[in-house]
Amino acid sequence: MPRFSANLGFLWAELPLPQAIRAAAKAGFDAVECHWPFDHDPGAVRAALTEAGLPMLGLNTLRGKPGENGLSALPGREAEARAEIDRALDYAAATGCGAVHVMAGFAQGADAASTFNDNLRYACERAADRRIVILIEPLNHHDAPGYFLRDATQAAGIIAALDRPNLRLMFDCYHLQIMQGDLTRRLRDLLPIIGHIQFAAVPDRGAPDHGELDYRHIFAAIDAMGWDRPLGAEYKPGGATEPTLGWMKTLR
Ligand SMILES: O=C(O)[C@H](O)C(=O)CO
Ligand SMILES: [Mg+2]
């Protein structure tokens, strides 16, 4: 039976993070994850997680200046990228969060590729002694045109080349349906390197109860593969979150 993680970057995004954590617990989620929680006191976040009895599965490195979408593949920006990796790892350690998504940024070409690899090696080393997983996530070219990491094939190549036990793929069904499709086979083939799975309707990124993907099929297939960790609900509710949660009953 699938279990679910509320992505608090989108769900209950209007609430301070500790309150959003409590709202997710009340709604029946099994875990939470967030985008950029750094303005919230990590002590208060950890206390809310403990009170709610939920783990925090992941958070992202900060994106950089306005208009940027991560720094780790940007040649010449290594010092800033690593400072953001350190900040994210410190916050993850302080809140007991299990994974950090290292955001690549808008860049292309060989220099970007080697910069991303070097920064990922740094992140994996710094994360290892804290038992934190480093995630990389392809983003679709409509929402993030020019983003360095475009699809799962490219991400799998990076993970194989770097060969670090704590480097994994964030498999976001929304982005990968847009970029590559064939999700059932792709999930099965990539399962050994997947660190987290996220979902939303395609193409509007709404609740997973409409659109071109049938999540009844996808979640049953993921279940049959033996995946039992919570799946990340990273969709835009377009208003209050509670009225959009009907899918939790039908997809469970
Ligand atoms: O947008 C997404 O899908 C990512 O998961 C994210 O956290 C920020 O881009
Ligand atoms: Mg995602």
Q: Give the biggest beta sheet.
A: 8 strands, parallel
The proportion of residues in beta strands is: 5-15%
Number of strands: 8
CATH homologous superfamily, by name?
Answer: Divalent-metal-dependent TIM barrel enzymes
Briefly, what CATH class? Alpha Beta
Shape: globular
Number of domains: 1
Order of helices and strands: EHEHEHEHEHEHHEHEH
What does this structure look like?
The chain has 252 residues and is of the alpha/beta class. It has one domain: Alpha-Beta Barrel (TIM Barrel). 39% of the residues lie in helices and 12% in strands. The chain has helices at 17-26, 42-52, 78-95, 110-128, 152-162, 173-179, 183-190, 215-224, 247-250, and strands at 4-7, 31-33, 59-60, 99-101, 133-136, 167-172, 194-199, 231-233. Strands 2-1-8-7-6-5-4-3 form an 8-stranded parallel β-sheet. Helix 1 packs parallel to helix 2 and helix 3 (78-95) packs parallel to helix 4. It is globular and about 45 Å long. It starts with a strand and ends with a helix. The mean pLDDT is 98. Magnesium ion binds at residues 137, 172, 198, 234.
Can I get a quick summary?
With 252 residues, this protein is of the alpha/beta class.
Give keywords.
hydroxypyruvate isomerase activity; Xyl_isomerase-like_TIM-brl; 252 residues; binds magnesium ion; globular; alpha/beta; 8-stranded parallel beta sheet; isomerase; Sugar_Epim/Isomerase; TIM Barrel; single chain; Isomerase; binds the ligand O=C(O)[C@H](O)C(=O)CO
